[in-house]
Amino acid sequence: MKYANEIFFLVFALILWGLLYGSRFILTLGKASQSEKLWLTALTLTATSFTLFALASTISLSLLTLANTCFVANFIYFGLFCRSLNGPIPKNMNILVLAGLLVFAVLFEYLRQNGFFIQRVGLISLIAASCFVWELRELRRLKEIRSNQLRFLIYTVAIELVLTIARLTALYIDGGLSTPNLYQEGVISSSIRWVWLGISILSYVAVLGYWLEKISIEKAQAIQESSKIIALLKEKERLIYGLLKANKTSATGALSASIAHELNQPLGASNLNIQFLKMKLEKGVISPELGKEILDSLEADNHRAATIVKSLRSIFIESDSSAEEVQLGNLISKVLDIVMPELKSKNIQIQLRVDEQLMVKVNATEIEQVILNLMNNALQALANSGTLQRRITIEATKSGQLIRLSISDNGDGVSAEFKPQLFELLSTTKQSGMGLGLWLCKHIVTRCGGSIHYEDTVGGGATFVFELPSAA
């Protein structure tokens, strides 16, 4: 049959172009990896070379140089693909490959015009055999070949290596020196060539199967991960439902604990005044003036306790906060009157930098409670520190439409581990205490449209800053 070789080449070319078309999913899945690009390049070069082999005898035999250059390039890029499975290929490798292919094309064209067919086949067989050995070495270097397709690829490449040597040997026996070109090759060597080219197609099929296998594994893993995420989301929903169900009980418990904590100060002060009053009565040395002073203190403590209860109840029951315009300096003075005895007993100095004209629209008693809580925190921090010159600084300034009030001490400050949850409910840095004071401060200030945060004091210590909208 006159055009048997051309028909075989054309059939093989169509098979390879079909494989290339079927591999387009690699490009549509997203950004192709280096390995995928190298394999697609090798497959394209092989399909192109087979197409040129099918056309060269009818168009021009000079196309054989281009066909064989593409054929050799396919071996090199397939080898680079195997190498890329073990690690990335340097970017400048393409330049070296193109330079080598240019040298090959010049040499092959010279042999086509001046040499023998067996010399050309020998050159291609040497390059092909070298690439097959390289491919086998790279595939064997893979630490653990879990893919059945890559295992199959090892066998096909090994068979290609054997057939390459067998073809060159058969061509020499068939009288390669007298064979003019590819299309007049002897029966034995040409038969081996077709088997070799068929096995090369199986190599490409094996790699295509490897990509499909890889995608299937990744899809299975994605489904598994998705199942885990769905399970976690369901667990989250169950937890949220449980928290919502327990919210009423938790709120009641938090309210009770808050009341117990916040009432400790006025009730403690009342208890001291009552004990003092009883002692004076038993001795019969109480004067009307002293009695009135003690009773006034008891009344003030009782009023403060009642206000605290009302304030705490408002946390869980939305109601009017009874805001009014007040001077911030007056609120600070009232708190200082309460804590002054303790300041003196612990030898703590007070530094005041307060603009007396600052006006805020708030519930006065609630803001007094915030200032008192922050002052008590500073007192306790200084009492537990080794600082000799103990000092609390209170500053109040206006910044735009906000009034900024800061209370600083020169104690030990707050350790880094406690800073993120300072204002959380039931979080405390104290050995005794229930972690409700700062949480309540934040709640009150937020209700007033303000904010509160912690800063480290320059030189050591803690600074609590809260801002409130200005009334003026």
What can you tell me about this protein's structure?
The protein is of the alpha+beta class and 472 residues long. The protein folds into three domains: 4-230, Up-down Bundle (Rhopdopsin 7-helix transmembrane proteins), CATH 1.20.1070; 265-316; 324-469, Histidine kinase-like ATPase, C-terminal domain (Heat Shock Protein 90, 2-Layer Sandwich). The chain contains 13 helices and seven strands. The chain has helices spanning 4-22, 25-28, 34-59, 63-84, 93-114, 117-141, 148-173, 187-262, 264-283, 288-316, 328-345, 364-383, 437-447, and strands spanning 324-327, 349-354, 359-362, 391-399, 402-409, 451-456, 462-469. It has a five-stranded mixed beta sheet, covered by helices on one side. The longest helix has 76 residues, at 187-262.
SSE layout:
Elements: H1 4-22, H2 25-28, H3 34-59, H4 63-84, H5 93-114, H6 117-141, H7 148-173, H8 187-262, H9 264-283, H10 288-316, E1 324-327, H11 328-345, E2 349-354, E3 359-362, H12 364-383, E4 391-399, E5 402-409, H13 437-447, E6 451-456, E7 462-469
Parallel strand pairs: 2-4
Antiparallel strand pairs: 1-3, 4-5, 5-7, 6-7
Helix pairs in contact: 1-3, 1-8, 3-4, 4-5, 4-6, 6-7, 7-8, 8-10, 9-10, 11-12, 12-13
Instruction: Give the mean pLDDT.
Output: 81
Dominant shape: rod-shaped
In terms of DSSP E residues, the strand content is 5-15%
Q: Total number of helical segments? A: 13
Helix content: 55-70%
Distance between the termini: 106 Å
Low-confidence stretches: 431-435
Q: The CATH topology of the largest domain, please?
A: Rhopdopsin 7-helix transmembrane proteins
**How many domain units?**
3
State the assembly state of the protein chains: single chain
Gyration radius from CA atoms, angstroms: 45 Å
Q: What does the largest sheet look like?
A: 5 strands, mixed
DSSP strand count: 7
Query: What is the H/E string?
Result: HHHHHHHHHHEHEEHEEHEE
Structural class: alpha+beta
> From the 3D coordinates, which CATH architecture of the largest domain would you assign?
Up-down Bundle
Highest-level CATH class of the largest domain: Mainly Alpha
Strand order of the largest sheet: 2-4-5-7-6
Domain Histidine kinase: 258-472
Enzyme class: transferase
Keywords: ATP-binding, Kinase, Membrane, Nucleotide-binding, Phosphoprotein, Transferase, Transmembrane, Transmembrane helix, Two-component regulatory system
EC number: 2.7.13.3
